[in-house]
């Protein structure tokens, strides 16, 4: 496995954590595309660390990382509204007006 394309998959929570945990099971992985995958700040840091430890991944693509695979500043990360628009079924509106 040299390319893992998980772009725009709503992995959410445990899915991202599981992917990070199992990166070492794909020692020949060179490209990891997680564009459009929502992550927590901790997952961004854990993923960055796992990719650096992996050693063979030369391309990491996500909304949270720059072209060199380094985390972007948090103010450049997608907002919660971005995720609600992208995956409305996964992030239902919880405002009081929506309950009526």
Characterization of this structure:
The chain has helices at residues 14-21, 41-54, 80-86; strands at residues 3-5, 31-33, 59-61. The protein has a 3-stranded parallel β-sheet with strand order 1-2-3, with no helix packed on it. It is built from 3 helices and 3 strands. The radius of gyration is 15 Å and the shape is globular. It starts with a strand and ends in a 14-residue tail after the last helix. Helix 1 (14-21) packs parallel to helix 2. It is 29% helix and 9% strand. With 100 residues, it is α/β, with parallel strands linked by helices.
Task: Give me some keywords for this one.
100 residues, alpha/beta, 3-stranded parallel beta sheet, 3 helices, globular, disordered C terminus
Question: Secondary-structure blueprint of this entry?
Answer:
Blueprint: E1 3-5, H1 14-21, E2 31-33, H2 41-54, E3 59-61, H3 80-86
Parallel strand pairs: 1-2, 2-3
Helix pairs in contact: 1-2
